[in-house]
Structures are given as structure tokens and as C-alpha cells.
Structure prediction request, 672 residues.
Amino acid sequence: MTPHFLTRTLDRSATIFLLIVAAVGILIPLSNLLLPADSPLQVPTYLMALFGKYVCYAILALSIDLIWGYCGILSLGHGAFFALGGYAMGMYLMRQIGSRGVYGNPILPDFMVFLNYKALPWYWYGFDMFWFAAAMVLIAPGILAFVFGWLTFRSRVSGVYLSIITQAMTYALLLAFFRNDFGFGGNNGLTDFKDILGFNVQADGTRAALFALSCLALIVGFLVCRAIVTSKLGKVLIAIRDAESRTRFLGYRVESYKLFVFTLSACMAGVAGALYVPQVGIINPGEFAPANSIEAVIWVAVGGRGTLVGAALGAVVVNYAKTVFTSGALAPYWLFMLGALFILVTLLLPKGIIGTFNAWSESRKASNSANADSAAAEDGVTKPHLAEKA
Amino acid sequence: MTMIETPAPTTPVSHAPAIIDPAVAAREAEARQKRITSAQLYLDGVHVSFDGFHAINNLSMVLAPGEMRAIIGPNGAGKTTMMDIITGKTKPDEGDVYFDGIHDLTLLDETKIAELGIGRKFQKPTVFESQTIYDNLLLALNVDHSVRGTLFWRGSRGEAERIDKVLETIRLTDSRDRLAGNLSHGQKQWLEIGMLLAQDPKLLLVDEPVAGMTDVETHQTAELLKAINRDNKTVMVVEHDMTFVRELGVKVTCLHEGTVLAEGTIDDVSTNDRVVEVYLGR
Prediction:
């Protein structure tokens, strides 16, 4: 952590973003816990849980922006990694219920008793321990992404074909998790959670802590992404995005770079899912729905692809709009509005909110400095030599 | 014409420190003995067809170390396909392609071939448009290209000096912080040649370097390539511009329908009846 590293990683917008997230992550839980319920500044628990959901979505959006915005890998199946992380956490929470379930079986979760399971399936072993579940939150999506990426990137599947395969992947998982005999609760998924690390999941204190943790995860995820995109590896990723075969001819092993960043991104999505599940109280196969993954890509496009801050912002803005519109008279039309939003952003703001803002502020800066240097430019100082004629 | 001056001969860009490990040295000595040819680049009986179209037909060609060779020929003669074969983008159906006399290029992929020291400039200038000129050259430097190496990369003075030297050679020092996408066509061509220099390859494949350049720029490019060649690099240039080829003053190979039609000095080749018939026109 040298000063050089910090200045490289934190430009102005990154610093502002981190300060806002940190402030939100501290103030909202404090206001929820310390202020009296009738105070206008008190954030009610349901609202905090809602914001917590947005923060998890923001982490998912960051992970998509890292691969799509910087490396040109358009994954339309990132919801699968999010859901896998969520299931890993859900399995831990199920095992914490113990004999407090409806059927009172100390080992088997309710749905297993209901489905006549005689014993715990082997892949549920270990999930009673938090550290194991936490490791699986990273490992399960990570391994899937690694194997998937290894097969596709090595055979040079890219562009729209890769996007289609990622859709197929998440759809296949959706179908698998829907099956009762797959051992993950079928279409009901995992729910009815009681406590996490001994704390009641429903308690305000636990919810406040989960919210603060989500913000912390967003901060850490953002720092990791920034460190990557501002390193030389980030330059290689952009080179791959813009001219893949050129990068190869320079001697870079493109598939290794893609594999690295794709796997890392899947792990991030897994963490987002794991923080999401205790806050919403349920995980079911619906999270694997291809539409979810596409929606997440729209968040990134709206906020600004390849900006990181934009991805997080887009996730919050679009989901807030979703909350507002789906709770009113406009509810049946939300998907149309989402589609229209995507089309409008693509047509009118192709760089997204943050990208457009950056371009605007840069052009303003450039025109300011151009006025200042116009005298110098007239002397031909800034003219490139090659264009000069005798 | 005040601008025209021979670009300073590119100072040899230093390689990584010489390998002293005796095991490696022994392996290298053994490899030298295994060389099947002393040529830098050796193509023999190469054949490629795409869906029945014979793009390359029994092509044989030898480039000596340190040689510069100009390749001419009509469109569709197989010039670019030949470069694709040498750089591993296309696999030949038949034939041998050897680099340095030991490396069978038909078995290797693009990355590996680039690592061996074969650099390529594309017909259409291909630079990383959304990155600065400096970063383009930084990416091209022949340093550690592993994921780990680039993630934990920290610039060194030596690297910066090498980039500065290349910037000077291609005369883009003043534009180092501009985005490559904002360069003129000719400047992009030069930047791509600069990326080749930063790559410091043993063999440079240069596809139509002066397309779209003014006469002055064409002349400067010829001087630049000659300077690169004097620096003991083997160079293969594909070009249609006969004035430029003449200015290079090197051995010329004319390709036609995927095979060598004529080879020799520019005067020999340009008076060859078949070459006149299929390419130059009467």
C-alpha cells in the first residue's frame, strides 16, 4: 500500500463514491438503531432491508462491469453466480434452524423431511459451519466460472455466442434447482431462516449489521475492481476488449486474462448473493431466471459501462425505480418500462449516466484548456511532426 | 524538405539479462545443433485451402537472418494468408514452417509465436484506440506477459527509457499522452511500427506500411524500416507501392495465386514477363 498505489486507485469520483457508501453504511444502521421510531430521521427496518438489497445488487453490477465494461465479456448469466452464493448462504441458514423447524428434525431441513429424505445428502455436509459456508460462497461460483470459462475462452467463444451460452448455463441451473430431487428445496427454495452466527436474522441489530456489512463488501469489491482496472492488467483487459487478436499477436495469453477476471467476477457475484439472502429471507430457483441476469446488465448499461461507479449507481437507480413503479398502479407495465429504459439509454446515453457525465466534464475541461493554450497551439508546438510538410 | 533526415538508427533495445544458467545454456547449444536450417524463416511446400480455394499453393521461401524482403503481388495472391500462417492465425494443410531453424510454427499458437520474437503490423492499422500512445507502447514491450506479472507490475526506469526511445524514433514524443484513436492514419501506421519496435522481435512482418501515407511519410517510413533492418532484425514487408519497394532496395518476391512467381532484385522482378502480365501490367 504505497501512496503511489492509492493515488492510482482513487481518483476523484472513486473517492466520492467510497465516502458516500461509507457514510450510508454507517448512518443508516445508526439511525435505525438509535433514533426513536417517531423521529423523521429514523430509517425504518423495512427500508433498511430494501436498501441492503440494492447494495447487494450494486456489488453484482460491479462484478458485471468488471468483465463487460473492461474486458468485453457480456455475461447474460451472472445471476447464476449470485444465486449460487445465495444458496451457499441459504444452506448454512437452513442448518442453523435445527430442531426449531416445523418437523423438528435436528439434522434434516423441513423440505427434506417433507420429501422423505432419510439422511442428509453429502453435499449438505459442512454447511452447519459458518466458515465452510462462507468459503463455499466464493468457491462454488468460482469453480463454475473457472470450468465454464476454461472451456469457452480456450475454444475462443466470444461475443454474442458467449452471451447465449451464459444464458443457457443459468437456465440449465434454474431447471436443475427447480427439481425436488436435486436436494435444494425445489421451487420453494430455502427459507424460514432463524439465525445467523447465533443472532436472530429478524432482529433490527442483525439487520443493521448485515446492511453495514453489505456496504463494506461493496467498498472492498470496488477497491479490488479499481486496483485491477488501474493496474497494467487493466490496460491489457481494455486491449482485449478493443482488439483481441492484436493483443494475442503481442504475446498475451488472452484466455488466461479472461479466465482470471471472469472467475474473480463470479466470486464477487457470489458474495453479493450471500449477503442478499439473509436480508430478503429467502433464496429460490427464480434467482437463476435468465431475465434477472439481463436486468443486471441493464443496470450497468444505464449507470455507465466501464466506469465501476456507474454500475453501482445504475443498480441502485433502476432498482429504486422498480420499487416505486411496481408498488403502484403502473405495476403491470414495469417490464415495458424497463425495456424502454434500456432502449432509450442505448440510443440517447450510450455511455450511461456516469459515462455521459464524464465525457461532458472532460470536454468542458478540454475547451477551457484549449482556450488557455490557443496561443501555444498557433505556434505549432503541439502539432505532431509526422503531419508537418516542408 | 527540412524534415527529412534518417531516423536515428534504433539503438539496440536491451533484452532481459543474458541467461547464465548452465542448464539453459546447454539446452540452447543442443537446440542450435538440432537446427534444420540456418534460415531465420523457412517455408517449404506450404499449402492452405479454404473451402476448396487454394489460397497458398506449394509456397516455399527462405529469409536469412538480418535480411529484409519485400513481397509484392496482386490482390488475392496470398500475401496476408502467408503472414497468418507465420503468426499462427491460420494452420497450413501441408508443408513446413520453421523459425530460427528449430521452432515448428505450425504447432504453436499466436501468443507463443509472438513470444518467440515474431512481430506483426497489420494491413489496417490496429492500435488500442481508447488508450494513450504511451500505454500502447507499454503494452507492446516484451516483458512479463503473465496475468500475475501484469497485475503486480510496477514501472521501471528501463522500461520508461525504452518507450521514450521508441517514441522518439516514431516521432510521437509530443503526443505520448494523446489517445491512439485520435491519431491520423499515417501516425497510426507509425505507432504500430513503434509497437513492433517495443516488442523487440527478431522477425518483423509488416503488412502495407505506407498505405494511405503522403509521399513524405512514405519516404520516412522506408528510412525507418531500413534503420530497423540495420539493427539486425529480419524484416518482411508486403507492399503495393512500387516506389516504396524500390526505395527499400532489397530482394523482392512476387507472389501469385499462392505461390512464388519470381524472386530477385526489383529490376529483375519488374522486367519478368509473368510478373508484368499478372501484376504490373504493360
User: Anything to note?
Assistant: Confidence is low (pLDDT under 50) at residues 1-18 of chain B.
